[in-house]
Amino acid sequence: MTLIADADLQTYWLLGVVLAAVVVVIVVVLLVAILLGARRILAAALRALAAIQSIRRNTDPLWDLTTTNRVAAELLAGALSIKRHTEGIAGALEATEHGRLEEGARR
Predict the structure, then answer these.
(1) φ/ψ of residue 87, rounded to 5
(2) How far apart are CA 92 and CA 84, in angstroms?
(3) How far is CA 15 from the centre of its chain?
């Protein structure tokens, strides 16, 4: 068994402490880089979420387009019905007026 001299032991111990300190510094630097990257990702995700919510608000009316088209078709059908009835009433009034004029001309 060989014994290590005190000077060599102290050198190895100091070398081990320095290496451990370097490893700790590297780990701290990597953790800080990871934390900064995570914060950038969070900020980007929040901006993306805000953009998505804005897009959703702007496109929500598209989902109501089917309802709008159905109501428009019902309004058109109602308007056409009113037009037919109005034309029928106008025709009846013209016939009545025309009949009165002929009756007045006969007198």
Answers:
(1) -65, -40
(2) 12
(3) 58
* CA-to-CA dists, residue 10 to 1, 3, 18, 106, angstroms: 19, 13, 12, 142
**To 10 degrees, the CA torsion angle through 91, 92, 94, 100?**
160
- CA-derived radius of gyration, the chain: 46
pLDDT tens sequence across 19-77: 999 999 999 999 999 999 999 999 999 999 999 999 999 998 888 888 999 999 999 99
Distance, CA of 6 to CA of 39 (rounded, Å): 49
Distance CA 6, CA 16 (A): 15
d(CA 36, CA 28): 12
